[in-house]
Write a structure and sequence with these properties.
Layout lengths: L1 H9 L1 H17 L4 H7 L8 H21 L8 H19 L4 H21 L6 H17 L6 H25 L7
Helix pairs in contact: 1-2, 6-7, 6-8, 7-8
């Protein structure tokens, strides 16, 4: 909760990846708030009122996961909405004559996106979701201490660079500092 709100303000791409990780952590604990309390919330050295807020936050996510049917896989609508907002901004940035650098970064990344889609069978997935899936997949591989191929690392570096530009543009837009027309 604390980390999520901080990431949402600072870097929307990191926020989305963090929230996907939170979804998986909740699943790993069987959507059991008492297990999350014991293994996650209680590990923080925080005042009881903040721990209660964290518990409430996790409970609300668990409730949403139940009501949205994403107990086993998939993403919460609130996370899908972030991806929708980023996709909307992405498309507007590509159309803008004021953002040639963004378009160049995207087209430099596009071959990797196409290759990842072909390898994963994500034919109907949007470009940005493919990028986030790739980053999240590498994050999981690193957590499992598995080897990552050099060509995958090269793709991830480009995707990361591209998404960091998008995240910065998102931050600028939220601050009212982005002019696309």
């Amino acid at each position: 909760m604390i980390i999520a709100s901080q990431k949402k303000k600072e870097n929307i791409a990191e926020y989305l990846l963090y929230m996907w990780q939170i979804e998986d952590i909740i699943r790993a604990y069987g959507l059991d708030i008492d297990q999350i309390q014991k293994h996650i919330i209680d590990s923080y050295d925080l005042p009881e009122e903040q721990k209660k807020s964290m518990r409430d936050w996790y409970e609300s996510l668990i409730d949403m996961m139940h009501s949205e049917g994403v107990e086993k896989k998939g993403h919460l609508q609130l996370n899908k909405n972030v991806l929708i907002d980023l996709t909307d901004l992405h498309l507007r940035l590509l159309k803008s004559t004021r953002e040639p650098f963004y378009g160049a970064a995207f087209f430099k990344t596009l071959p990797y996106i196409v290759e990842l889609r072909a390898k994963s069978g994500e034919g109907k997935t949007g470009e940005l979701e493919t990028c986030f899936n790739a980053l999240y997949g590498v994050l999981l591989l690193r957590l499992q201490k598995k080897e990552i191929q050099s060509d995958t690392l090269k793709a991830i570096q480009q995707i990361s660079a591209f998404l960091s530009i998008l995240a910065e543009k998102y931050k600028q837009e939220k601050a009212g500092e982005l002019e696309l027309e």
